[in-house]
Design a protein that fits this description.
Elements: H1 2-27, E1 32-35, H2 46-55, E2 61-63, H3 76-92, E3 98-103, H4 105-115, E4 122-128, H5 140-145, H6 155-158, H7 167-170, H8 178-184, H9 188-191, H10 200-207, E5 212-217, E6 234-235, E7 241-242, H11 248-251, H12 257-262, E8 266-270, H13 283-290
Parallel strand pairs: 1-2, 1-3, 3-4, 4-5, 5-8
Antiparallel strand pairs: 6-7
Organism: Varanus komodoensis (Komodo dragon)
EC number: 3.1.2.2
Subcellular location: Lysosome
């Protein structure tokens, strides 16, 4: 009995220390906010939640339940404001900042939210297969939404007031009708500061508050076109993909991309063999591209 009590006295400090360390490590993980894409809802991200809980136990993860399914077709500025109201209290309660995981269309929503929120505390912005330089391609989504249009003539709808009320038209970037895009895109052209506006300097300053920008995409995506748009590359007028450093928005550093790159704060991941709807449920993608940034 005495020997047993002696063992307890010896081990007790180590147990207390182990519990303290466990609580400390658990508490060290910043909150994670997940923003879904076109036609998605929080239920689609169950595997991602399980991955995070397994590798970073105790992390406060929020998959924002707004603009689900067909509601995701609402204009992106409307969605940005709605997501801001939902996320801002999480930011205020996170002394050390938050991480954003933003999938597909959600990546553009997150970039706009960061750019237009002066006091945000986003640490790492993970853009998961998002058309950051826009979309131009015939996909199943496009054929379902616009059965009477192909990529070559969708500009006739998208670059109108009515078209700009649809989220996908907010980032439709037709390389053959550049002038119409610049004059009529009320979201992406503004966000990229390709269309001049008085808030450009402030938006650039706000974006540069982030610590890291993680860009993830791959050649077998099948929806984002060109898929390299997820890495800030895009078509020229011959539909040849030019990489990020060849884009005018980079060369002119219109919204901070070149500055982030010069700071060595952009991380690129190209993952083959992943289709668009599987990015957030693929364990290899999570382990390779996401997990290390959620500290």
């Amino acid at each position: 009995m005495r020997q047993h009590q002696s063992c307890i006295r010896v081990l007790a400090p180590f147990c207390v220390l182990a519990i303290f360390l466990l609580l400390t490590l658990t508490a060290s993980y910043k909150p994670v906010v997940v923003i879904h894409g076109l036609f998605d809802s929080p239920s689609d991200f169950q595997l991602l939640l399980e991955f995070i809980n397994e590798t970073h136990p105790g992390t406060n993860v929020t998959v924002v339940d707004l603009f689900d399914r067909t509601e995701s077709l609402k204009p992106l500025w409307v969605q940005v404001e709605g997501f801001r109201q939902a996320i801002y209290p999480i930011m205020q309660n996170a002394v050390d900042g938050v991480h954003l995981i933003c999938y597909s269309q959600g990546g553009l929503i997150c970039r706009a939210l960061i750019a237009t929120t002066p006091d945000h505390n986003v640490d790492t912005f993970i853009s998961l297969s998002s058309p950051q330089m826009g979309q131009y391609g015939d996909t199943k989504y496009l054929k379902w939404l616009f059965p009477d249009h192909m990529k070559s003539n969708l500009y006739r709808l998208c670059y109108t007031h009515m078209g700009q009320d649809l989220s996908i038209c907010n980032y439709w970037n037709d390389p053959h009708h550049r002038d119409l895009y610049l004059n009529n895109s009320n979201f992406l052209a503004l966000l990229n500061d390709e269309r001049l506006h008085p808030n450009a300097s402030a938006w650039k300053r706000n974006l540069l508050r982030i610590r890291k920008l993680v860009l993830i995409g791959g050649p077998d995506d099948g929806v984002i076109m060109p898929w390299e748009s997820s890495l800030f590359a895009f078509y020229d007028d011959n539909e040849t993909v030019r990489d990020m450093t060849s884009q005018p928005v980079y060369l002119l550093d219109t919204f901070g991309l070149k500055t982030l790159h010069a700071r060595d704060d952009i991380v690129f991941y190209t993952m083959p063999g992943v289709s668009h709807t599987n990015w957030h449920s693929n364990r290899t993608v999570y382990d390779t591209c996401i997990a290390k940034w959620l500290t």
